Amino acid sequence: MVKQGQGTYPVKKTEFPPPPANIGRIGSLKRYPDCDYAKSLLYEAARLVAPIIHEYKFKVSNLYEMFPKNANLLGLNVNYGQKIMIRLRPHHNDRSFLPMNEIVGTFLHELTHNKFGPHDKKFYDFLDKLKERYEDIHYRGASVNYYSEQNKLGRGGLPSSSLISVREKRIKELSKPKFKTESKVLGSDTRVSKQNTRPVDMRKAMLEAAERRLRDSKWCHSENAQEEQLPSDDEFDIEIVERDAFKKGSREETKSEEKPRHSMNVQAKSQSKQIEIIDLTSDSEETESNVPEIIVID
């Protein structure tokens, strides 16, 4: 006889590592059954962009997933990094996900809003600089002064073979050539610069810049972020890791625990001393009354 079970089968919740430095919290929309996978995409995007965040000292308090009704909206930056929201799913299907390169591109765009608000020339120059730096790090092997400890599920940490020692890195840097090729005019110190044979048409460049601003204004509403209907924090499956507050709180707890224990020990010792004195006094009285008096005569 088959009996119908009660309740759902207990599923162990996926444990995520702490977010990268300068990112406070990472959360996905918990109304979807694949929210853990969505959160893992945000962690992966944060890991890929972490060297740039560290290099430019960006601050991101909250990195959240968004699924707005507007099909063109891909990202949002609220109050210069207080909350960055990224679309992970296409508008026509909330059970599939966008490729990682599009997610990272949106993340870099929204990080640029930490420094520049409107979509102007300064904004796009800085965004192109971030994209170039990202390609240098991940595709051209540029060296960065940033190390991120990655913990995969079911493993304690990185294998020892993937770690490069400081000595090997120093030897690699010293082995690079120290000279730079350049061309100069014979008999002078002036350098020969290659002139652009195809001058850029200013009118065409201005038209392309205007079209780019128009396209970005459709899918990025960070300039008018306050007008958007943002989901509340209750709708997110948030991984909260506050390192400094946790350390400070643990220290205060240990101090607060040590003080009452110390006072209790002092009270206990004083009480034990009082009890011992009382017991000794009573014992001495009993012994004096019970022991017979003996007189020795020489």
What does this molecule look like?
This protein is of the alpha/beta class and 298 residues long. Among the domains are: 23-151 and 205-241, no CATH class; 243-283. The protein contains six helices and five strands; from the N terminus they run βαβββααααβα. It has helices at 35-56, 100-112, 121-138, 166-174, 202-219, 243-290; strands at residues 23-29, 60-66, 75-78, 83-87, 236-240. The chain has a five-stranded mixed beta sheet with strand order 3-4-2-1-5, with helices on one face. Helix 1 links the parallel strand 1 and strand 2. Helix 1 crosses helix 2 and helix 1 crosses helix 3 (121-138). The longest helix is centred in the C-terminal third of the chain and has 48 residues, at 243-290. The radius of gyration is 34 Å and the shape is globular. The N and C termini lie far apart (102 Å). Residues 244-261 have a biased composition (Basic and acidic residues). Residues 244-275 are annotated as: Disordered. It comes from Candida tropicalis (strain ATCC MYA-3404 / T1). One of its GO terms (molecular function) is metallopeptidase activity. InterPro entries: WLM_dom, WSS1-like_metalloprotease.
